[in-house]
Request: fold
Amino acid sequence: MIRQTLEKKAALIEKRLDELLGEYCCKGKLCDAMSYSLMAGGKRLRPALCLITAGLFNAENEALDFACCLEMIHTYSLIHDDLPAMDDDTLRRGKPTSHVVYGEGMAILAGDGLLNLAFEVMSDLTANADGDYTARYAKVMSVIAKASGVRGMIAGQAADLEFEGKGNSEEILSYIHDKKTAEMIKASVLCGAMIGGADDVQTERLEQYGKSIGLVFQIIDDILDVSGVEQDLGKSTGKDEAAGKQTFVSLYGIKKSKELAQKETQKAVDALGIFGMDADNLKQLAVYLLSRDR
Reply:
């Protein structure tokens, strides 16, 4: 059931992403490069989380463009991650990476363009909002900026590079993956909650949920890099070990990593208790992330 829900959300998101590119981008090679990576498919997890959470408060329509902005930012980070100066990867979402197709310079600009476009869209939404939504949208934009910036995703990426090949450390591992992966997943949940007008208790529970599933996502990602099939994943495998990266598998092994993922999944499900059956989709999504194979 959750797979069907995710497929429906992905279709909605992809339709709106295509519309936003058409509204904001000038035709040409830059727009082509942006579209190539943005419309290449993928799990659309972050925007789906935003929409499903907003749906708890009947605010999915209001959250749609913000959800799309989350996907733009995520895609920008993937384009830059794949560059030769970063992870030097040639496969993403089952297709050649942006720099392979468009060259490094255009790939960098495509990533820059998607990041800037996300904030342009959010700024326009905020400027044109009415009533309570003006303040809500401004707070959402701030949350996304922090989660994706130098105290969030970028900080995690920097640490990931800095500590390659320097042995394993629980403290460093926790920092890298909390910042690099979990922050944006948690922010995606929080954005849906904020747009919907969640109260303090609801926001706190959803924040815990987002943090836990963010860690689960990264743990399973680390496991799949060792045990997954490249064709199924749509990206290269075995690169983390080859680069000497800090991963849950390199520090704890596969068995203990799975146990940690199971504990965090239970924490995520427990955090949603106050919502009752209304949060069934979020609960199912947490379990799905634990058992995913791609």
The chain is about 75% helix and 0% strand. The mean pLDDT is 95.
